[in-house]
Amino acid sequence: MIILIYITYYFFSILPIIISYPFRKNTISDYHYNKRLKWQRRIMLVFNYVALAVQIIIACELERIVRYNPDYGPLLLSAYIFLIIYTFPISWLESPKEYLKKKKWK
Question: pTM here?
């Protein structure tokens, strides 16, 4: 049962990162002209913030969980690592790149 819990935890922790990865290449003008992309970005922001909140809850309450079952000890390290990693997908979604015009060679 513990293996199933770990597999589920890592699946739902890595999923927001994988889904947010294509958003890193979008520019401000892409969001400005595409309503569907705007809504996808908003949904992904909510999804990433919920996943971040779950990581914070696990990191704060793990001492209580480990007293119940010591097999969940490595979950603390994973929660702290995911807390650091989630800053990247959230930054991709919160502040998209600005469009840079390429200079033409004469």
Answer: 0.77
